[in-house]
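Board notes, transcribed. Complex of a protein with heme C.
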Amino acid sequence: MQQAIGLLLLGLALEASAGSVTQRADLNPQDLERVAAITQPTSDFSQPEAFEIMQGGAGTVKKRINPDIFSHPAANLTFEARQEFMVGNGLFRKDWVSSPASTQASDGLGPLFNARSCQGCHVKDGRGSVPGFESIDRSDAVSLLVRLSLPSSNDDARARLDRGEVVSLPDPIYGHQLQPFAVAGLPAEGQIKIDYTEIPVSLNGGEMAYLMSPAYSIENLGYGPLHPELRLSPRLAPPMLGLGLLEAIHQNDILANIDRGIAKGVSGRANWVRDKETGEKVLGRFNWKAGQPDVEHQASAAFSGDMGLSTPLFPSHYGDCTAAQQACFLMPNGAQENLGEHEVPARLMDFVTMYSQNLALPQRRDVDDARVLAGKKQFYESNCIACHVPKYVTRRDASRPEHRFQLIWPYTDLLLHDMGSGLADGQEEGDASGREWRTPPLWGIGLTKTVNPDATWLHDGRARTLLEAVLWHGGEAQAARDRVVAMTPQERADLIRFLESL
Ligand code: HEC
Ligand code: HEC
């Protein structure tokens, strides 16, 4: 009898390893087996899984649910790390001003810019909101930024992209991104205008949903007409939770999601992008198209593109100014000899990066609620987990100690998927096509509106509810979306309850 149980356990372990063990030099064979077993998708929906409530591993916080719930430092930071986090927090909130200014240490904003602070877009460390929906004042609409790119129409352009010199081809005048603001004396580039058309969707059980389909244009162009072939890609500021943990997921686990996805009928792809420090091609993980490899790259790109501030990785003081915008280069900049050659010196950059890596996940709520468990079952059975991969164990050798060997539940494969024509922006970015988006992590998503009541979902914030976000899924996710349409009203409500518990 005992031998039979032993064999059975061995069988289970082997089955698990066949499915999900990848080559990971950071783990010994015993650990590999444990990790394979614990990251196997569950099939028991009668009770919560072990540690499921701690969705961000040991860094997860149990705090009062209020609008500050996304702003806590990870629970497992040392005292010293907490001090660094606090300094980074100050820089994330700080309003930068244009040069020359009397507040020497925070000038250099612009010449062109989208916002004065990181927090201006990542509202209370959560996501932003879009103009055009009822309660939102248009002038507040900074957190929807518009990326600009041209199709790679000729061989020369294709070669520049292949060499990784650029991830997308900029507009010759307006650059990579539209900046709706400029310093005094310089024209701003323009403002986004959105016209929504309502699309009714009939759901099984007699329910209706109404999707808002956006059409984008640019008003008040400051530098003449846009290139006729230009593609606009509006993007909403995403929440800042658990980003260091996403960096600490082993690359081989992400690449293993490609085959695991194929077995489940989807075809995720990696976005290989250029590391600006080493020049190597590395796996993209961050942003809506996985166009940036790590938090430091994206935080530096934000200082440059969104605020016009130079950093070691993006050394131009003039951000996204192009050769066609000569007046832009004549504006004063904020570099100061005593602080080094960049407006945001390496030391400050390190604090902002550290902060951005360590915003804590809140504990899950109601994990043992019968409706939440029923919704979790719907989530698994509708094949949502083909892309929204539930859990990982992070690298044992992650660069920061608090991110090492953590069981985390981000619900993403960090891969690109064709999401159909409804969501397509026609914009290529690195290896991502004009129809592909990176699966966003779903952890924390249930508290979105607690933190910012105006926040909405999807890359351009067009979904006013979680259900609308799901109903926009097409392409590789069409079958999953159709299952949600075909659910009974109770099953659909359960699915949403599960998402709200994340
Ligand atoms: C103008 C609004 C805006 C400002 C200002 C801004 N961000 Fe962002 N942020 C965004 C948007 C939009 C994205 C997604 C971009 C994309 O998909 O291309 C993003 C993405 C990110 C990401 C990647 C998150 C993820 O889950 O992939 C990080 C990290 C980040 N920003 C950090 C910062 C930091 C640090 C600052 C300040 C230096 C900052 N941001 C300023 C709008 C903004
Ligand atoms: C083929 C891969 C795939 C499948 C299957 C899939 N998703 Fe997604 N999901 C994505 C991608 C990619 C996005 C981002 C799309 C965008 O922003 O345009 C997304 C976005 C979302 C969002 C909004 C996230 C945010 O931060 O705004 C929710 C909620 C969501 N999915 C839930 C689900 C549910 C529930 C299911 C199953 C019924 C599901 N997804 C199935 C890939 C997938």
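Residues 114-115, 118, 120-122, 142-143, 145, 147, 235-238, 243, 286-288, 291, 295, 298-299, 302-303, 306-307, 352, 356 surround heme C (ligand 1) (CB under 6 Å). The chain has two domains: 2-76+241-269+358-500, 83-238+295-343.
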